[in-house]
Specification:
about 325 residues, mainly alpha, about 75% helix, about 0% strand
């Protein structure tokens, strides 16, 4: 079989293996949300103007009087047909509500991840090459400090210093009032959440990069390359980097759920109108249809991220067999 055929077979097997995972995640999430106090109609039970008869009519209209497995099968059938349900407030399609928040989240997540990969990898490489130097100790200490404090603490400190005390940057939101579409205003609002999210990610990437490069540059073939008179930069770029970057590609695949949780905290603190903010709002409003849609969307995102990472690793690492 050709390499292309092996690759297609590998992708197909991975997709087939992912199906039980998505089904399991959906069953567990569906069960947990229906076991929550009050169930999907909890928000209505707190409204004094809605009677018990109204609640019962809503329960029947939404199919909540059916057995749980019947409700799940109906929800799964609706998802497979492309309808992710409707919000309890406003009756908007769930998929439409999620999709309209994606640009804001991808702008924040994508920019922070790109910066973290560049800065973190550079710090990790320098730390590995200059092992036990002052720079290595400072980078290690800084990474440990960044990982020791929770994201929300960095967010609150950033707001206090740069928005309240110095008044350099806005404390939250995506645009100032009346400045919608202004790119410069968007960039000013992006700085603080981006800085907080990137700080934590850089710490993670620098530690992984340092460990990976440190292991590779101690191998015999690296010493052989140096003994042949190759410069340090050439040895690092041509011989060490291709092997050291493989664990970082795997890290990129599993980074998505961590990044999403980090964006959830950052978006909530800074009022950034992305998916993290939507998740928190849906949780407070007991919008179970949105929560289920976001759980499935995130599960698919994680599966696709890991699949792409495995494909890239299989393509650049001859030790990985596709067949």
């Amino acid at each position: 079989m050709t390499v292309r055929g092996d690759l297609l077979g590998y992708i197909l097997r991975r997709i087939l293996h992912s199906i039980p995972l998505v089904i399991g995640v959906s069953i567990i999430s569906f069960g947990i949300m229906h076991m929550a106090p009050g169930g999907p109609l909890a928000v209505y039970t707190l409204n004094a103007t809605i009677t018990a008869a109204d609640i019962e009519r809503l329960r029947v209209a939404l199919g909540l009087d059916q057995p749980l497995y019947v409700q799940y099968l109906g929800w799964a059938k609706s998802m497979l047909s492309g309808s992710w349900g409707y919000t309890l407030f406003g009756g908007r399609p769930v998929l439409e509500v999620i999709v309209e928040r994606l640009p804001a989240t991808f702008l924040l997540m994508g920019t922070s991840l790109a910066l973290a990969m560049i800065i973190g990898t550079l710090l990790g490489v320098l730390g590995a090459v200059r092992r036990y130097s002052v720079f290595d100790y400072l980078a290690t200490t800084g990474a440990m400090l960044a990982l020791s404090f929770p994201t929300f603490w960095f967010g609150l400190m950033a707001i206090y210093i740069f928005a309240i005390e110095l008044r350099w940057l806005p404390s939250g939101g995506m645009y100032s009032l009346g400045e919608e579409g202004n790119v410069l205003d968007l960039l000013r609002h992006l700085v603080l959440p981006l800085m907080v999210l990137t700080l934590v990610l850089v710490a993670t990437w620098s530690r992984y990069a340092r460990s990976s490069f440190l292991e590779v540059i101690q191998q015999d073939y690296i010493r052989t390359a140096k003994s042949k008179g190759l410069s340090g930069g050439r040895v690092l770029a041509r011989h060490a980097f291709p092997n050291a970057v493989i664990p970082l590609i795997a890290l990129l695949g599993v980074q998505l759920p961590t990044l999403f949780s980090g964006a959830l905290v950052a978006e909530t603190i800074f009022g950034w109108p992305g998916m993290g903010r939507l998740f928190v709002d849906a949780l407070n409003m007991k919008e179970y249809s949105i929560l289920m849609g976001m759980v499935i969307f995130t599960a698919l995102l994680v599966i696709v991220g890991n699949l792409l990472a495995d494909i890239f690793i299989a393509l650049i690492d001859p030790r990985v067999k596709l067949a």
